[in-house]
Amino acid sequence: MNVAIECQQLTKRFGERTAVNQLTLTVPKGSIYGFLGPNGSGKSTTIRMLCGLMTPTTGSGTVLGYDVMTQSEEIKQRIGYMSQKFSLYEDLTVEENLDFYAGVYQLGAAERKQRKAELIEMAGLTGREKQLAGSLSGGWKQRLALSCALLHKPELLILDEPTAGVDPVSRRIFWDVIHELAKQGITVLVTTHYMDEAQTCDWIGFIFFGNLLAEGTPGELIERMEANNLEDVFIELVRREEARQAAEGGAR
Amino acid sequence: MKRFVWERYWSVVKKEVIQIKRDRPSLAIALVMPLMLLFLFGYAVNTDVSDIKMAVWNQSPSAASRELVEQFVHTEIFQATASVSGYRELEAMLDEGTVDVGLVIGPDYTRKKDRGEPAHIQLLINGSDPNIARTAMSNAQLIVQHQAIALQEKNLQKQGLGELQLPLELDTRVLFNPNMESIVFNIPGLIGLIMQNVTMILTAFSLVREKERGTMEQLVVTPIRPLELMLGKITPYVGVGLFSFCLVLLVGTAWFGVPVKGSIGLLVALSVLFLVTTLLLGIFISTVAKTQLQAMQMAFALILPSVLLSGFMFPRDSMPVVIQWLGGLVPLTYFLEILRGIFLKGVGAEALWKDIVGMGAFSLLILAVAIGRFRKKIE
């Protein structure tokens, strides 16, 4: 099985509003899948459904072979997740945060020590172990969050706008880590607004108003849309979709 | 996947302990507030009626009438604060509330008494507080009855008939609280009431705070189980609550002089059960509330029923059955019986088993409901 995420017709409605509309997508194992779309397009909702944080209204999907409807606990054991907003404990130190999640993921004493050392090193947090997480700057916080999400060696890493509001240096370090992880065979699903980041993904999906508008490798998409770069693809897709919806609305 | 994992539970405990230690002001409140509340309410909650203010209209001033007034004041139930010379004046004072009772001795009191004829005296009572009114009335009746018997005895002796033998006498013995001091009854109840409301708030915030700060989102994508999370969260607070309980217990016994007649060990052991129950109730609030403000409001909404339905203020036996059932939803109801039983009567677990089982069952129920309500979802 070479598929990490597969979903068909995944739909999430909040009352009258449809946040995600019949989304079908496939993320191959070991790839970096960039999930693009304007704010409020349904990216976070999709991600939350895949993590088991939300139950889809209709549709079906599997993550690492487990059903998103019924096996969310099995999924949670095997994925690493980082939300848009910093969601670790600001009143705990870097090390205490790592210790807490190591305990929650049931890492043994030896493994815990080893993973902590590895991840602190990887995130460049050496020397900051005793610092309160709340006193870290944005870029450091994100790297700490990533470390916590990686403690239990997940097969799939799901990142929701991990680099929003982060300085370019931290951004670069962050993406170096992501590429390094992909080389180790970890699948990464990541949402972003930065086209330079999207450019380095293996696969790209464009989502708008809850609909998946285009999917492919960055090269394919640029070629197909006859655009110069991904940013043009993005803007063109949004413009077309808005025009189409306006026409539909007018016809109605 | 469904089993309870001690390691995850223990991680939550360690995390909570660190967070409690870092949040010094909240910890200080949890430890000091019960003490302050007990000092404050220990003096305020007193249902003993004494020193009822009495106006006297003595229309027949004499040694005999003054002796009668003396008898009233002597009991310390009444306190002669004013002397009036007419109904109008007396009624005005009752209206204003400067006195609660008025003693009226008629102009023929001394004359009738000297002749050995039956005399009448009148007592006007402000009945707006039935408790004061009842105390005033029954005590006045006793005083007058006592005085009447004494007079009768004297009259009979004068006629040479010797000692008066009453045909019927009641011997009473008050158990557990022989002086019938309300403080002995109220301090144990207060300890329970204060501990319930302080500890409930501690955990009422806990899950909501994680929701508000966004840390819940990270927590619910881990394999942690709701039971591990909830028990992990209450465990450190059982320690905090127990420490606080012991402080309050010390003040209750040493400062207010209310001794514990029964086993202190049993009292402390059952207080742990009580703390767990109230902390679970707090957790339940935390699963219902969406914000810390809501949690606070819900915790406060529970205070009044705790005071009124638990038997703290009013005896539960005289409440309608439905209201008694509602009282069963307040952990204090069970703990009050336990506190008063051990404090006052010195009874053991065998006399309290109903309340122990009731409280245990209630804590399991509330835990089950809280777990049922807790969703590892963000919606």
Automatic annotation (TrEMBL), chain A:
<dbReference type="InterPro" id="IPR003439">
    <property type="entry name" value="ABC_transporter-like_ATP-bd"/>
</dbReference>
<dbReference type="InterPro" id="IPR017871">
    <property type="entry name" value="ABC_transporter-like_CS"/>
</dbReference>
<keyword id="KW-0067">ATP-binding</keyword>
<dbReference type="Pfam" id="PF00005">
    <property type="entry name" value="ABC_tran"/>
</dbReference>
<dbReference type="InterPro" id="IPR003593">
    <property type="entry name" value="AAA+_ATPase"/>
</dbReference>
<dbReference type="InterPro" id="IPR027417">
    <property type="entry name" value="P-loop_NTPase"/>
</dbReference>
<protein>
    <submittedName>
        <fullName>ABC transporter ATP-binding protein</fullName>
    </submittedName>
</protein>
<dbReference type="GO" id="GO:0005524">
    <property type="term" value="F:ATP binding"/>
</dbReference>
<feature type="domain" description="ABC transporter">
    <location>
        <begin position="5"/>
        <end position="234"/>
    </location>
</feature>
<keyword id="KW-0547">Nucleotide-binding</keyword>
<dbReference type="GO" id="GO:0016887">
    <property type="term" value="F:ATP hydrolysis activity"/>
</dbReference>
Automatic annotation (TrEMBL), chain B:
<feature type="transmembrane region" description="Helical">
    <location>
        <begin position="234"/>
        <end position="258"/>
    </location>
</feature>
<feature type="domain" description="ABC transmembrane type-2">
    <location>
        <begin position="133"/>
        <end position="377"/>
    </location>
</feature>
<feature type="transmembrane region" description="Helical">
    <location>
        <begin position="356"/>
        <end position="374"/>
    </location>
</feature>
<keyword id="KW-0812">Transmembrane</keyword>
<feature type="transmembrane region" description="Helical">
    <location>
        <begin position="322"/>
        <end position="344"/>
    </location>
</feature>
<keyword id="KW-0813">Transport</keyword>
<feature type="transmembrane region" description="Helical">
    <location>
        <begin position="264"/>
        <end position="286"/>
    </location>
</feature>
<dbReference type="Pfam" id="PF12698">
    <property type="entry name" value="ABC2_membrane_3"/>
</dbReference>
<comment type="similarity">
    <text>Belongs to the ABC-2 integral membrane protein family.</text>
</comment>
<protein>
    <submittedName>
        <fullName>Transport permease protein</fullName>
    </submittedName>
</protein>
<keyword id="KW-0472">Membrane</keyword>
<dbReference type="InterPro" id="IPR051449">
    <property type="entry name" value="ABC-2_transporter_component"/>
</dbReference>
<keyword id="KW-1003">Cell membrane</keyword>
<dbReference type="InterPro" id="IPR047817">
    <property type="entry name" value="ABC2_TM_bact-type"/>
</dbReference>
<dbReference type="GO" id="GO:0005886">
    <property type="term" value="C:plasma membrane"/>
</dbReference>
<feature type="transmembrane region" description="Helical">
    <location>
        <begin position="298"/>
        <end position="316"/>
    </location>
</feature>
<dbReference type="GO" id="GO:0140359">
    <property type="term" value="F:ABC-type transporter activity"/>
</dbReference>
<dbReference type="InterPro" id="IPR013525">
    <property type="entry name" value="ABC2_TM"/>
</dbReference>
<keyword id="KW-1133">Transmembrane helix</keyword>
<feature type="transmembrane region" description="Helical">
    <location>
        <begin position="27"/>
        <end position="45"/>
    </location>
</feature>
<feature type="transmembrane region" description="Helical">
    <location>
        <begin position="183"/>
        <end position="208"/>
    </location>
</feature>
